[in-house]
Design goal:
Elements: E1 2-4, H1 8-19, E2 25-27, E3 39-42, H2 44-52, H3 56-62, E4 68-73, E5 79-84, H4 86-93, E6 98-101, H5 102-112, E7 117-119, E8 124-130, E9 133-138, E10 143-146, E11 149-151, H6 158-164, E12 200-205, E13 210-213
Parallel strand pairs: 1-2, 1-11, 2-7, 4-12
Antiparallel strand pairs: 3-6, 4-5, 8-9, 9-10, 12-13
Helix pairs in contact: 1-5
Length: about 220
């Protein structure tokens, strides 16, 4: 199996295939795998995938499980609503709702692929069927043959564009700014009786604007 892309999806696919006895090789366009990205949410369905891969316990060591989610007004700090998360997610969906740093999740999956061959600086430009075999083609003129080529090469996927088309991005007039702030720099209070350092995710809701926050790593 040849997997194009060593992001979250590509590495998870590699772990799953290796555990089922398949020989896997991964190709990644980046020259190195570094700490890229910020916080992300892992819903119960995502946690169940990691559970099936035997990685749930390791995830819980680094990720954060909020007890609840709350929303407050941006100007007065007035509580709009508070919704339990921890108890509901586990009871209703059979797995927790987590937030984590993308780099922690990526590193965990990278470790889990073990000695799987990983080729960096390999920009895939397409994939074809040649004499009954799947062949991935790369920008440097090389190619890789496998029984199956899996395209996990992200938003700029050459394989998706080749087979399904890839329309130009459409600006929705919505912009998101993301950042990571040390916990000691976070204000202790956001509105009456709403401590931002407590184990919850928060939403500051304003007119046409919102700000969300949650911890990415457990204490």
């Amino acid at each position: 199996m040849a997997i194009v892309g060593a992001g979250i999806g590509g590495l998870a696919a590699a772990v799953a295939l290796r555990q089922r006895g398949f020989e896997v090789e991964i190709f990644e366009r980046s020259a190195e795998l570094g700490e890229v990205g910020a916080g992300l949410q892992i819903g119960p369905n995502g946690v169940k995938v990691l559970r099936a891969l035997g990685l749930e316990a390791e995830l819980m060591k680094n990720a954060f499980e909020p007890f609840s989610i709350m929303s407050v007004t941006w100007d007065e700090g007035r509580l709009r609503f508070r919704q339990p998360l921890k108890a509901i997610a586990r009871e209703k969906y059979g797995a927790p709702y987590m937030s984590a740093h993308r780099a922690d999740l990526h590193t965990m999956l990278h470790r889990a692929i073990g000695d799987t061959r990983l080729t960096l600086d390999a920009a895939c430009i397409g994939a074809d069927t040649v004499n009954g075999a799947a062949v991935a083609r790369f920008a440097d003129g090389t190619s890789a043959e496998a029984d199956i080529v899996i395209g996990a090469d992200g938003i700029r996927s050459a394989i998706r564009a080749q087979y399904f088309g890839d329309g130009a991005p459409r600006f929705t007039e919505m912009v998101a700014w993301r950042c990571i702030v040390p916990m000691e720099c976070v204000p202790e209070r956001i509105g009456p009786a709403a401590k931002s350092r407590s184990p919850m995710a928060s939403i500051l809701a304003g007119s046409g604007r919102t700000a969300t926050s949650s911890a990415t790593r457990s204490a």
